[in-house]
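Researcher: Go.
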Amino acid sequence: MKNNQLFKVYKKRMTLSAVVSSICLGLAAGGLTAFILALVAFLFSIDMLWVTIGVAIGVAVVVAVLLYLFKFRPTDREIMRRIDRMGLEERAVTMYEYMDETSVIAKLQREDAVKRIESVDNEKIKKSFPAFNLKKGTAIVLSVVLVLGLGMTVVSGLSQAGLLPSPDIDGSNKKLFVSVSYQVEEGGEILGETDQLIDPGADTTPVVAVAEDGWVFVRWSDGNRMPDRSDVGVNEDLVVTAIFEELDTGEDDPDIDEGASDSEGDYDPNIPESNESEGAGNQGEGGDGGEGNGDGSTGEGSGSGQGGQEGQGNGNGQGDGAGGSWSSNNWVIDGETDYRDVFEMYYDMAMEIINSGEELPPELKAFIEGYFGSL
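Model: Structure:
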């Protein structure tokens, strides 16, 4: 029977079915392995894409070979049993068992079995010897496992390439520090620590944007319009820029008349000039303007003439080319002390508070904002 051409055909069909079943189950095993490894790599942000693929292929090959050798490879007896399922009523198995018998009965039995086998139509043969011999439910489960394995491998690969975020459940990718940078392009400077490294979720130390002469602070690049800031609960890297605008002062100062004295407040009324007398001064060529008293009219050593001394206080010195003055809008505290006289003290105080990491008091903040608003 082994040399019978028909037997070889049946054996070939069963061998093909065994190979297909072994490969399918091997791929399913490889897919399950790929799913597990890819899931671990994705959850814990491990770069092991090629390891996952290599191990999955290795598992698939090994499982397929082992299944074929020890489970699905057909034997001659199994082939005969499969043939009998086509309605031969165990004629094929009997023929196989008495294959070496030389008796007349054995010969007649073999001849009868061969005739019955040859009379089977092709439809029965295809039904009894299918190329794919796995049950429908098993095939569906194996397909799902294979798809999951391939899908998870793709997801893990995209995550490792940086195209998909990783859940990072072990915190291995968690930032140890958050970088915060306060910058300025032109027109001013930043008081305080401009580059800071802080713990995620922590607050930054305060900084203040200070404009240069002729410039004014407008806003920060993130829309914050307060010159002083301290960012709270920072979890991501932050870069903001202080934006300043240049003031349009024009060519002439309308508050200063042509020919005004360049000196401010350097006149000592206790030192008499050659043409200045105690009390009311006489008019004359070249006389120095008297020191303004309050309303800027007459005072000690007042007089008229060209080149009058700058008036101090709330008024102007008399005479052609009267000295410049400033108004009470520039005064602070007691109506007499000017911003410029105390700015350095307040500035040092503000820097001390900023460097200590504390928030500026409202009154100090108001002073700084008022100073720069008066320029």
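Model: Residues 253-329 have pLDDT under 50 and may be disordered.
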